[in-house]
Amino acid sequence: MSIVLVCNHRDPKPWVKAFKDKNPDLDIQVYPDVKDVSSINFAISWQHEQGVFAQFPNLKVIASMGAGVHHILKDKTIPKSVKVTRIVDDNLTKDMADFVLLNCLYGIRNLKFHAQNQLDKHWEIKSYQQPEAVKVGVMGFGVLGKAAAKQLKLNRFKVNSLSKSRKNIEGITSFIEDELDQFLAESQILVCLLPITEGTKAILNYNNLKKLPENAQVINVARGQHMVEDDLIQLLNEDHLSLACLDVFQTEPLPTESKLWSHPKVSVTPHVASMTDPNSVVNQILDNFNRMENNKRLKNEVDREKAY
User: Of 3.40.50.720, 1.10.10.10, 3.40.50.620, 2.70.150.10, which CATH number belongs to 2-89+276-293?
Assistant: First the structure.
């Protein structure tokens, strides 16, 4: 049995080294340099080209290199018999929570405003908000959403959450899907950490974003498909929204012609909110490889119908 690494836009060498350090006898190959496609049973993937897995007739499992799996699930050529897993890692979780907090502070302390003034060599003082005066709405309350909400609460922000079912976490007000309008109306900062499903695609559209309070900030660290980018730009131009911090985009890498690059109210980062350290996650991936070999239940398996 062999493993194939399929990872566009990521250097495979640290991954190969991490696996070889754990098991020098492991046969791990890097796509497209695969010696025998029939030997591949297990794939590790990030942003693969659609249809690439069709050439592996004995593929049983595809493991995402990160917490997200949309890049795998959107490939309809993958047989239904192939199982999909995702990464659940304390470092990933902490990094995401820190990044969300960073962007919330970036907004309330007007750092985008001051960065632009530095470029313009313009000195202007602007008052800022205290965290205690700001209510943050966290859309999606899985592992990452809970961690982000707790980190924000720890740093004195008021926090609401939105999820399918009611949650009970001290100091965090829980909303369910039917209460979306009220949740949005209270969110001075909106953080999207939803999974990408048929029901959440384009949820950050004009109608929903318009329900946010005047001068609200939007942070998207989930998936680019959640956001209707033209609608966001329109609301920024209308001064309904004051700032958008975007780490994910409809098309990645973000095309050079995108208006988001140069918009004065948009902060762009290249999908770096939470990046997988191979050495931190190699054990859980190898554990699932061994479980596959022994016909045992996989850990962190994704329900392909629910898409999470």
Answer: 3.40.50.720
